[in-house]
Amino acid sequence: MSGEFAGKAALVTGAASGIGLAVARRLGEAGASVVVADFDEDGAQVAAGELEAAGTRAEPLVVDVTDPDSMREAVRFTTHTFGSLDLAVNNAGVSGPSMPTGEFEVTAWDRVIATNLSGVFYGLRHQLPVMAAAGGGAVVNMSSILGTNGFAGSPAYVAAKHGVVGLTKTAALEYADKGVRVNAVGPGFIDTPLLRGTDSPMRERLVSLHPQGRLGTAEEVAEVTAFLLSDRASFVQGSYHLVDGGYAAR
Ligand SMILES: NC(=O)c1ccc[n+]([C@@H]2O[C@H](COP(=O)([O-])OP(=O)(O)OC[C@H]3O[C@@H](n4cnc5c(N)ncnc54)[C@H](O)[C@@H]3O)[C@@H](O)[C@H]2O)c1
Asked: Over the stretch 209-218, which tens digit does the pLDDT of each residue have?
């Protein structure tokens, strides 16, 4: 396979749907072999089948990012199947309920933090040593515009996404001299199944928050993610890249 990621092996979590699927497609189109890792077994199989049909070497894998053993196994599976782990995208996430902090269910807090923050840590925990031992690699963690801005009704999501930005900077400092680049992407509101529970007035409100007057697409987020993973971003380290139609520029 030709392309700028030819010969590279990628592990993408949450790759059965939305942004993760668009990233998996984008990396595959540029020549990477891709482990399509997701909680959703059927979705991972369908996505990997679609990538294979398009000429990408792809393997589905059931993972639960809230389980450190599952993330260790995902890294082992990638190196065993494709011979290396060059690119990792810690993308799996959940939205959680909309409720003010003073009423937010503790169980919902725990689930959102476990998935959106601890899940990224468990990924890094097992990806970074393997990449460092191999002499290098690149990681993108999926944060959000809510990695720097608050959002009423989403305390756990906002806290987790802010945490992802801090974790990204810290890991980037620790592994810079080992050839591993770690960066984060901050999408605005993107039209994916994550927003499926959003009613029409709320959707209009979300659109109005973006000066471009629309939601983003998963492909627009995948494009920036692919750039950060590529050698074109060779001096980009520990940074947080917005893909938000101007949301944060206000
Ligand atoms: N859609 C948006 O507006 C938006 C905005 C900013 C950031 N994000 C972030 O982008 C990432 C992807 O979101 P999306 O919009 O593509 O959502 P999505 O719901 O379309 O996809 C998320 C995927 O993650 C998987 N997943 C959830 N929990 C998991 C777990 N414990 N283990 C493994 N897989 C799990 C789901 O099965 C699903 O396939 C998330 O981290 C999300 O917070 C999304």
From this structure: 999 999 999 9
